């Protein structure tokens, strides 16, 4: 299993691994990183790639060679669904090895990013404050009740998740998220600013709806604005409103956007399941989200789809970019592996999005069948977020856009 079988003698191998961490885009609030920090991030990104590209595919081999035949011999049938398949995988050394290695990689990624951000916590807060104090484009709401499903989870092993702050003006959690995302996406090429999604969304909408010229765009669950800033660059004449529950994300987000010379994004603290106090009906031409839905509880999901319908104008578009429902082309073993994040990566709702048809949610919230669409775009520019794709997903790296025009 040294991988040499993939490269028969005489094969010329082009480097396809992670780029160097030093190529990561730097802005005014990006944490300072020394030699050892950079090499730690490089090492962890390489390990992440290795786990996903070399170890993960071997699990299905082991499942087909050992796990399923043993089950069939005992029960006289194949495992009926991904839940049964996952329980069987728990006894398979290849899955155990993969799972322990992947969990350790994520914990190390979080600790690496957090260490970098924590040791300069005050300096980062001061830099963010200098760029955002008194700026009306930062609208925080200290009375906001953070949804319980967010408070209860340290998402993907990230201590304090997106919202925790330990002193006034704290931006540590945002800085950690930003500087360590390199590891999470395996040092993907073309992701210096982690901004290819907005490009993909804009290109897709321009091709599908050439008359759509959004003047006001709402980005839900915007975090520190990777997607919102990307949209702002694609639509320089539009006003982008980036909403998130986490104040550290928003402070850091505005400071980051301004230091990148992007001036058309306003960062608003709010609960995207209920924005009635913040915005009136039909306030936006375009409503987007990027990797929000897989972190949402079922009741909040319904509320968010209803809010999207309320907030978008007639003729406007709502589009969500995230992992999508398992199709029946996906083997039960593959489906079981996809549920890894739910069970071992503090992403309890990940599996929900693998079984939920967004089509139904769009229609139930008021959109018509005619207006519904699914899209893919090569411009997503990074390999699958969870490393695995159906054929249709793989065209765009495992993430799809699902949307509707009103
Ligand atoms: C994976 S991040 C999204 C990344 C982001 N869209 C980007 O472009 O980088 C998920 C975000 O959703 C936010 N979130 C989840 N539920 C929310 C809610 N009900 N209201 C507001 N924000 C929410 C979290 O605070 C977190 O920042």
CATH architecture name of the largest domain = 3-Layer(aba) Sandwich
CATH topology of the largest domain, by name, is Rossmann fold
**Helix and strand pattern:** HHHHEHHHEHEHEEHEHHHHEHE
N-C termini distance: 52 Å
CATH superfamily grouping of the largest domain = Vaccinia Virus protein VP39
Which regions have little confidence, pLDDT < 50, spanning 5+ residues? 381-388
Over the alpha carbons, how many angstroms does the gyration radius reach? 21 Å
SS field, number of helical segments: 15
Q: What general form does the structure show? A: globular
Supply the CATH class of the largest domain.
Alpha Beta
SS-based class = alpha/beta
**Average predicted local confidence, pLDDT:** 91
Strand content: 5-15%
Q: Which ligands are bound?
A: S-adenosylmethionine
Range of helix content: 40-55%
């Amino acid at each position: 299993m040294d991988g040499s079988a993939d490269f028969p003698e005489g094969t010329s191998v082009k480097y396809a691994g992670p780029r160097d961490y030093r190529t990561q885009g730097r802005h005014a609030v990006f944490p300072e990183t020394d030699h050892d920090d950079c090499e730690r991030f490089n090492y962890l990104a390489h390990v992440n790639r290795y786990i996903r590209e070399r170890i993960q595919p071997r699990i299905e081999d082991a499942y087909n060679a050992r796990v399923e035949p043993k089950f069939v011999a005992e029960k006289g049938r194949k495992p009926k669904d991904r839940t049964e398949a996952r329980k069987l995988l728990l006894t398979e050394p290849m899955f155990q090895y993969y799972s322990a290695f992947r969990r350790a990689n994520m914990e190390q990624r979080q600790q690496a990013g957090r260490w970098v951000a924590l040791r300069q916590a005050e300096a980062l807060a001061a830099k963010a404050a200098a760029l955002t104090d008194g700026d009306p484009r930062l609208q925080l709401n200290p009375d906001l009740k953070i949804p319980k499903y967010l408070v209860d989870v340290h998402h993907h092993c990230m201590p304090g998740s997106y919202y925790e702050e330990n002193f006034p003006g704290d931006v540590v959690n945002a800085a950690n998220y930003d500087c360590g995302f390199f590891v999470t996406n395996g040092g993907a090429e073309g992701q210096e600013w982690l901004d290819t999604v907005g490009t993909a969304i804009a290109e897709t909408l321009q091709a599908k709806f050439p008359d759509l010229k959004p003047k006001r765009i709402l980005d839900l669950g915007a975090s520190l604005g990777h997607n919102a800033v990307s949209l702002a660059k694609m639509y320089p004449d539009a006003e982008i409103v980036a909403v998130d529950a986490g104040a550290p994300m928003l402070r850091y987000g505005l400071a980051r956007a301004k230091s990148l010379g992007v001036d058309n994004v306003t960062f608003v603290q709010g609960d995207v399941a209920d924005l009635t106090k913040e915005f009136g009906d039909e306030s936006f031409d375009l409503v987007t989200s990027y990797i929000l839905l897989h972190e949402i509880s079922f009741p909040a999901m319904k509320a968010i789809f209803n809010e999207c319908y309320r907030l978008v104008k007639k003729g406007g578009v709502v589009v969500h970019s995230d992992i999508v429902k398992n199709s029946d082309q996906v083997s039960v073993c593959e489906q079981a592996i996809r549920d890894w994040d739910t069970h071992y990566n503090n992403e309890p709702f990940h599996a929900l999005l693998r079984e939920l048809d967004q089509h139904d949610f769009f229609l139930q919230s008021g959109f018509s069948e005619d207006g519904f669409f699914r899209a893919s775009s090569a411009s997503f520019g990074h390999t699958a977020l969870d490393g695995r794709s159906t054929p249709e997903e793989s065209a765009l790296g495992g993430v799809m856009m699902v949307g509707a025009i009103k």
